[in-house]
């Protein structure tokens, strides 16, 4: 969203508050920063949310939204909120993996099969209270979510079994994904997302692990990807967080109303992420990609590789004194419940 659109949203909030007679007009004006583009489903949810906040609080809480990294890059959003540079920020845990070792357990392959499922898991009250919210030091967690699962996308050689990926140079999205790809025998390559298309065209990389929406819509890899192995391998986690001092500025009389605006939104947020699958996949197919959907028997060696990676990650984090296995076991139980 550009600055003009941000002002429009803030103005809409002011108009809403003015239309409610008898309401006190003094309150909090907050700034929300996100690095996602304005057209992303999560950005659209946030745009809708700030209008609802203005309505439900009688205009006493007004939020100005800045999308597309206008106020800072993705790598800085957590610290921007902690410092109070912005009041609310959308963060990607993988940009600060050492700070969120338990939230980052969602990166272990094959935990969930959709954003709806993953977002339901992460917002479970017990999981949040015991494990996730405490590691978000210096901020208040408003909600958490995952994206939709990633697939293995290759420029030439299709991947039907682990042997097919041996030696292929594959761009990885996270440390857990890197470990999984290496367990399969791939040669992993680290690249910023902005460099993927160029390096695919030049064959510096042979493929990548990415969700359909990112590959087909955001990074326009249609025509470069010739095979998509649809395994629903990997999701990563995000959070909308708030500076505690900014939260304290919300008038006590409307604080409950503010909190209620984010109750029960998990399915809506998850469905937004998942909605990117269809157009993203279509763009790749239109560009000539072959979609490979392995059978349960064909999936088994991929899942076995993921199990080895999972056990190593849990052991490493347990050795560091973290309750990683308890947190992950709860995540798995919640994932089964959310899939039912």
Strand arrangement within the widest β-sheet reads 7-6-8-5-9-11
Topology order in helix (H) and strand (E) letters = HEHEHEHHEEEHEHEHEEHHHHEHH
Give the overall pLDDT as a whole number.
92
Shape: globular
Structural class: alpha/beta
Radius of gyration: 21 Å
Residue runs with pLDDT of under 50 for 5 or more positions? 3-25
Helix tally?
14
Question: Main beta sheet, described?
Answer: 6 strands, mixed
Question: Distance N terminus to C terminus?
Answer: 37 Å
Estimate the strand proportion. Answer: 15-25%
Helix content: 40-55%
Question: How many distinct beta strands?
Answer: 11
Report on the architecture of this protein.
There is one protein chain. With 340 residues, the chain is of the alpha/beta class. Helix content is 44%, strand content 17%. The chain has 14 helices and eleven strands. It has helices at residues 3-18, 41-56, 77-83, 115-122, 125-132, 175-184, 196-201, 212-218, 244-248, 252-260, 266-274, 277-286, 296-319, 324-339; strands spanning 28-33, 61-66, 88-92, 140-146, 150-154, 169-171, 187-189, 207-211, 227-234, 237-242, 290-292. The strands form two sheets. Strands 7-6-8-5-9-11 form a six-stranded mixed sheet, sandwiched between helices. Strand 6 (169-171), helix 6 (175-184) and strand 7 (187-189) form a beta-alpha-beta unit. Helix 1 runs parallel beside helix 2, helix 4 crosses helix 14 (324-339) and helix 8 crosses helix 12. The model is unreliable at 3-25 (pLDDT under 50).
């Amino acid at each position: 969203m550009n600055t003009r659109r941000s002002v429009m949203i803030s103005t809409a909030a002011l108009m809403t508050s003015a239309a409610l007679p008898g309401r006190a007009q003094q309150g909090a004006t907050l700034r929300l920063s996100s690095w996602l583009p304005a057209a992303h489903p999560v950005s659209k949810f946030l745009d809708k949310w700030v209008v609802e906040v203005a309505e439900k609080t009688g205009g006493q809480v007004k939020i100005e939204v800045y999308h597309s990294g206008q106020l800072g890059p993705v790598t800085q959003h957590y610290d921007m909120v902690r410092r109070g540079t912005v009041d609310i920020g959308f963060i990607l845990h993988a940009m600060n993996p050492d700070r969120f070792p338990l939230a980052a357990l969602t990166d272990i392959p094959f935990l969930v099969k959709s954003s709806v499922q993953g977002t339901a898991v992460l917002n479970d009250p017990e999981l949040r209270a015991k494990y996730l919210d405490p590691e978000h030091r210096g901020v208040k967690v408003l909600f958490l979510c995952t994206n939709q699962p990633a697939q293995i996308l290759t420029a030439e050689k299709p991947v039907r079994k682990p042997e097919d990926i041996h030696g292929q140079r594959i761009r990885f999205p996270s440390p857990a994904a890197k470990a999984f790809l290496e367990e399969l025998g791939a040669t992993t390559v680290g690249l910023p997302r902005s460099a993927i298309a160029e390096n695919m065209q030049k064959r510096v990389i042979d493929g990548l692990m990415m969700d359909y929406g990112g590959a087909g819509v955001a990074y326009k890899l249609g025509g470069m990807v010739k095979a998509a192995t649809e395994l629903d391998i990997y999701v990563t986690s995000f959070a909308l967080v708030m500076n505690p001092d900014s939260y304290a500025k919300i008038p006590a009389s409307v604080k409950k109303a503010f909190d209620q605006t984010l109750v029960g939104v998990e399915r809506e947020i998850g469905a937004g992420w998942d909605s990117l699958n269809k157009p993203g996949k279509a763009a790749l197919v239109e560009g000539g990609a072959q979609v490979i959907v392995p059978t349960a028997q064909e999936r088994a060696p991929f899942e076995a590789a993921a199990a080895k990676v999972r056990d190593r990650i849990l052991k490493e984090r347990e050795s560091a004194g973290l309750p990683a296995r308890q947190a992950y076991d709860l995540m798995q139980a919640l994932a089964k419940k959310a899939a039912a």
